[in-house]
Design a protein that fits this description.
- The complex is a heterotrimer of chains A (about 260), B (about 375) and C (about 425).
- With about 260 residues, chain A is of the alpha/beta class.
- Chain A is about 40% helix and about 20% strand.
- In chain A, the strands form two sheets. Chain A has a five-stranded mixed β-sheet with strand order 3-2-1-4-5. Chain A has a five-stranded mixed β-sheet with strand order 8-7-6-9-10.
- In chain A, helix 2 (about 80-95) packs across helix 8 (about 245-255), helix 3 packs antiparallel against helix 6 and helix 6 (about 185-205) crosses helix 7 (about 225-235).
- Chain A starts with a strand and ends with a helix.
- With about 375 residues, chain B is an alpha/beta fold.
- Helix content of chain B is about 50%, strand content about 10%.
- In chain B, the strands form two sheets. Chain B has a four-stranded parallel β-sheet, with helices on both faces.
- The N and C termini of chain B lie far apart (about 50 Å).
- Chain B is globular, with a radius of gyration of 20 Å.
- Chain B contains 13 helices and eight strands.
- A four-stranded parallel β-sheet of chain C has the order 2-1-3-4, sandwiched between helices.
- Chain C is α/β, with parallel strands linked by helices.
- Chain C has one domain.
- Chain C has helices at about 1-25, 45-60, 80-85, 90-100, 105-115, 120-135, 155-170, 185-205, 215-235, 245-250, 255-260, 265-280, 305-315, 325-330, 340-350, 355-370, 385-390, 390-400, 420-435, and strands at about 70, 85-90, 145-150, 170-175, 290-295, 315-320, 375-380, 405-410.
- The chains are: A alpha/beta (about 260), B alpha/beta (about 375), C alpha/beta (about 425).
Chain lengths: ~260, ~375, ~425
């Protein structure tokens, strides 16, 4: 059993539920990640209980909540948006200002983090699937390719097939035509990564400027996506450790900040 | 009273009612004929009825919803429709309604003069006002009374004076934004004298000193729909200190003529003295200048640019407005809505994140 | 200044034509290789078209500082500017070219990065993207001394051109043509007429000398005659088979848009007309065999002209007329040079998109009747509101009142990202199969 846990942080996303228990220095001592259940309150109650149990955090250890379902966490002592929490989490991990690209399942956020770890600007793509992880997920599923297979496929690509459609639905049809025409799968998968990263780069636009770049979110676990994004913005990007936990970590650290 | 009740009450007095499409129209002339204007903003939610898909989904929701509503009989309680020539989409809506049988009653239009304020434009506007007046004379079966027109001008000047007071002195009003905007938007369908009375009552409640806590914001956009945007702002701890909504602040003309000898000349002066709006004849510099004035007067810490998806006049101005705001160091949040009934969770998150961000900036500034 | 002017004139009268002649001699001016396929022989006049437009764009590279330069909308009363010696650039024409050369998405992204919504008119995004990035496929576009719009094609150009003028720091002039619901309003026409006088004064100020009335009249005469000649070219489509298709119209309309009022423009359409008449006499059709005759509504899909043309022609479907091309001739009907200003005001106000849908429906019904049309294709253009709002009603009316088959194809005039080849092909094939 881990010890020293004093605060919990949960990020109740629409795709996945993330939670962490941290010690007084903000180090993660326990974690939980699960696909989000529509019965959010029940899932939250169960997972928070598990986190408390395995981390040894007390019953009254404060809890910071963020994410889509943040207002449905009755035990939360502090509720903040995922923008603020991701910025806080990233700054906690890096100690430096910069721009964080949080690549989620259903939305993508670009957050400019100032010298003190505060949010100085942000942009979100939350209306259209085409700029989010969902784009890749849907089309790869259609191709019978798992997300975990993507990096290996992309590495094998001899060339790239450009995907021109900006709409996920159109792109799906386009990809099916390409497969029917005999285009090699690795090239198509690379093309999908390029298309998605191009859109995110456009979303980021001038917010990126000459700042140091970081990446978080479940999609960041896909190495091919991180590489494609770095290529699209023309600069190296650091994938934060345990990228999908950055929001939950930020929620927990924000509670620590409040004392 | 709701819209239908107001319409029935007005008609029972033997007067006529016109449903008016957004945005700017010569309300004084309607009032002078005892015509009640009921504005058609929506209704909110996806377009309903058999004609919901009659206009492409790449056209703004204000227009799509209006056509679906009109076709489904939603305005059957009124005597006629008035279409200001606001933009290409409203232009199209007007001709679809006129030419393809969605409405069999009288249809009127009011054409704006685009481009700079110049003698030729003023002559056109005067002629267009008179042309509309002549059509309404036929419609009501009575001639336009000069004194009634002067009275109408006076009453709408008083309404604007009060609106200006409430908006400019917003910090001294204890009302929440949802409450204030509900009050202001009653003007979209109340008989002017009744609206005036409500505004006077609200103005009487002005406190001697500022009472609004929370973060002051500037909001610019077409219309505060869905109204839950205001709830989200209030919930996040912000309030609207400066209003540049086309449906609200941009309608408040602060010009007060000294003479009403020639009421039509006065109406032309009022037309060109109105706050800049791309659905009339503004240029981007004038709009950006006005936003700066609003910022200076209100002390707003951030700006919310609330656009309606597909709204071309507004979207073309955005880059210039953003640039000016950023030059002033004012953080900007752009929110695009489609007349949905409720804001999406993502939109609420954006608003909350923006207010959190401003709050942190303000706290650092205070330290 | 004098030497720049000389260089400009040489470019237009000597160097440009020389380069064009050299290209022709070297055979690099090859007509688009249209394989045997379903098309008739390519139009010979296309060679001259390319030369004419090539010289126009070439001369533009030398226009800054040599002559006053204006960026204008397609419906603008350009004759007044031309009479004052202006070189006129057409951002719409340039944007169509960019779209055809597949530069649309990248230019639009530049505009989008600057904050312009992707939902705005694609021409505007491409133009603003070109202005901001300096990218253009035509070598160089001269910077304007004046940006001028006429609202007769839409209100969007007002916002667009105003933004461009603001960005470039040059004056913006607007000729506002009040929209016509039903009949023309006298005060609306009077407003336009007054603005034409204002325009002449502005042009004179920028050109630093007023144009003589006789010069204006001459340019107007040339514009009027060219529009009539263009109209005559379109009328040849009434014959069976039609000697050319609407996709040809879209290519060959460049001069009537961008060179209207010049002698070269009038000469060109005379040449084209002669060629079309000859083809009619010889029974040479644009599509071989011509099984069915179609009407195209809305702007061309610039980045897919060849594909779409082929898609329909393969099954013997020929577009024999289009509202987009007719618009450039039809508004000049009834023009009276004896009352130039008032007649110009009426001509400007009477442009297809400045009038109500009842007028458009009447025009379309006339085209269906006069050109023996069997089917109508409505291009529902995602980013062109004035042309697209009301198309479903037009569809219903045409089907009900004329019994023609109608299909709606959803795309965009210049943004290829809004085009789904699978969807378009499915709809087009289903439409053709229904005949």
């Amino acid at each position: 059993m881990a010890s020293g846990a004093v605060v919990l942080g949960v990020d109740v996303g629409s795709t996945s539920w993330k939670g962490v228990a941290v010690d007084s220095a903000g180090r993660i001592v326990a974690r939980r990640v699960e696909a989000t259940d529509p019965r959010i309150e029940a899932q939250t109650e169960r997972l928070v209980a598990e986190l408390r149990a395995i981390s040894g955090a007390g019953h009254d250890a404060p809890l910071g909540a963020t994410g889509y379902g943040r207002k449905r966490v009755p035990a939360a002592t502090r509720i903040l948006t995922e923008i603020t929490c991701h910025a806080r989490g990233a700054y906690h991990l890096t100690g430096r200002p910069g721009v964080l690209i949080d690549f989620g399942g259903q939305d993508t956020k670009v957050i400019r983090i100032g010298d003190g770890g505060e949010v100085s600007d942000f942009r979100m793509n939350d209306k259209c699937a085409a700029g989010t992880g969902r784009f890749l997920e849907v089309i790869l599923a259609r191709l019978g390719v798992g997300l975990d297979q993507a990096p290996e496929l992309v590495a094998r690509a001899a060339g790239e097939v450009a995907i021109s459609s900006t709409c996920t639905v159109f792109a799906e049809s386009e990809v099916i035509s390409l497969v029917a025409q005999g285009e090699p799968l690795p090239a198509i998968v690379l093309g999908l990564h390029r298309a998605l990263s191009g859109r995110v780069a456009t979303l980021a636009g001038r917010l990126v400027d000459d700042a140091e770049l970081f990446m978080s979110g479940g999609v960041a676990l896909n190495r091919a996506m991180a590489d494609a994004l770095a290529a699209a913005v023309g600069r190296p990007i650091t994938v934060l450790p345990e990228p999908q936990l950055v929001g939950a970590l930020g929620a927990a650290v924000s509670v620590l900040d409040a004392g | 009273m709701n819209r239908l009740q107001v319409i029935h009450a007005h008609r029972s007095r033997g007067h006529k009612v016109l449903a008016v499409l957004p945005i700017h129209y010569p309300k004084e002339i309607l009032t002078a004929f005892d015509i009640l204007a009921v504005e058609l903003w929506g209704p909110p939610g996806p377009p309903r009825g058999p004609d919901a898909g009659r206009i492409q989904s790449s056209v703004c929701a204000i227009v799509r919803n209006a056509l679906a509503f009109i076709s489904a009989g939603g305005v059957d309680a009124v005597d006629g429709l008035l279409f200001p020539h606001t933009c290409d989409s409203i232009q199209g809506l007007a001709t679809v309604v006129r030419d393809f049988g969605s409405w069999s009653g009288p249809v009127f239009q009011f054409i704006h003069a685009r481009g700079e304020d110049r003698p030729s434009a003023r002559r056109f506007v005067e002629a267009e006002l008179k042309s509309l007046a002549a059509e309404l004379a036929t419609f009501t079966g009575r001639s336009l009374d000069g004194e009634r027109l002067r009275d109408a001008i006076r009453i709408h000047r008083n309404i604007d004076r009060l609106r200006a007071t409430l908006l400019d002195q917003r910090s001294r009003l204890a009302m929440t934004d949802p409450e204030l905007y509900r009050l202001l938007r009653q003007g979209e369908f109340l008989w002017p004298a009744d609206h005036l009375a409500e505004l006077e009552a609200a103005a009487a409640g002005l406190a001697p000193a500022p009472v609004q806590q929370g973060l002051p914001l500037l909001v610019s956009g077409i219309v505060p729909e869905p109204m839950s945007v205001l709830d989200a702002l209030a919930g996040a701890g912000a309030w609207i200190a400066a209003d540049d909504y086309a449906a609200v602040g941009r309608r408040v003309t602060r010009h007060h003529p000294t003479s009403l000898d020639d009421p039509f000349a006065t109406l032309v002066d009022l037309y060109f003295a109105a706050p800049p709006c791309p659905t009339r004849q503004s240029n981007q510099t004038a709009r950006a200048d006005r936003l700066e004035q609003l910022l200076d007067a209100s002390g707003a810490l951030g700006a919310l640019l609330h656009t309606v998806k597909f709204c071309e006049p507004e979207l073309f101005d955005l880059p210039v407005l953003r640039r000016r705001l950023l030059e002033r160091g004012v953080p900007v949040l752009q929110l695009e809505t489609e007349l949905e009934r409720e804001l999406s969770g993502q939109a609420v998150t954006r608003i909350e994140a923006f207010v959190e961000m401003l709050g942190a900036i303000a706290a650092r500034g205070a330290r | 200044m004098i030497s720049r002017r000389l260089r400009y004139e040489l470019a237009g009268r000597a160097v440009g034509p020389l380069l064009a002649a050299l290209r022709r001699r070297r055979g690099t001016s090859r007509l688009a290789a249209r394989d045997d396929g379903p098309f008739g022989p390519p139009l010979e006049s296309t060679r001259r078209l390319k030369e004419l437009m090539g010289i126009y764009y070439y001369q533009g590279r030398f226009a800054d500082g040599a002559v006053p330069v204006a960026w204008v909308t397609s419906g603008f009363p350009v004759e007044i500017l031309r009479a004052h010696g202006f070189y006129c650039v057409y951002p719409e024409n340039h944007a169509a070219l960019c779209a055809a050369r597949r530069l649309g998405p990248q230019l639009s992204e530049v505009a989008e990065a600057a904050g312009y919504s992707r939902d705005l008119c694609a021409y505007a995004r491409m133009d603003i993207g070109s202005v901001l990035s300096g990218d253009t496929p035509v070598g160089r576009i001269p910077k304007p001394d004046l940006v001028a719009a006429c609202s007769n094609i839409c209100q969007t150009v007002v916002y667009w051109f105003r933004a461009v003028a603001d960005h470039l720091g040059v004056p913006f002039v607007l000729v506002d043509t009040p929209f016509v619901y039903g009949d023309f309003q006298p005060h609306g026409l009077a407003f336009v007429a007054e603005q034409l006088e204002e325009l002449a004064q502005t042009a004179a100020r920028i050109a630093r000398r007023p144009a003589r009335e006789v010069d204006i009249e001459r340019v107007v005469e040339l514009a009027w005659r060219a529009s009539q000649e263009w109209g005559a070219c379109l009328e040849e489509g009434r014959h069976r088979p039609s000697p050319w298709t609407a996709f040809d119209h879209f290519i060959h309309m460049a001069p009537i848009v961008a060179l209207r009022g010049t002698q070269g423009c009038l000469d060109y359409y005379r040449e084209l007309h002669a060629e079309l008449s000859e083809r009619v006499r010889g029974g040479i059709g644009g599509v071989v065999p011509e099984r069915h005759r179609l009407l195209w509504d809305n702007i061309a899909i610039w980045y897919r002209l060849r594909d779409l043309s082929r898609l329909f022609a393969d099954d013997g479907f020929a577009f024999v007329c289009a509202t987009y091309s007719s618009a450039w001739a039809q508004s000049w009907d009834g023009f009276d040079p004896a009352h130039r200003v008032h007649s110009t005001a009426a001509m400007l106000s009477g442009v297809l998109l400045n009038r109500d849908l009842a007028n458009r429906l009447a025009l379309m019904k006339g085209l269906v009747r006069d050109f023996s049309v069997d089917g109508v294709v409505l291009h529902s253009d995602r980013s062109c509101k004035p042309y697209s709002v009301g198309q479903y009603d037009l569809k219903d009316a045409l089907q009900r009142e004329l019994g023609v088959r109608v299909v709606v194809l959803e795309a965009d005039h210049a943004d290829s990202r809004a085009y789904s080849a699978e969807q378009i092909e499915t709809r087009a094939h289903a439409f053709m199969e229904s005949f």
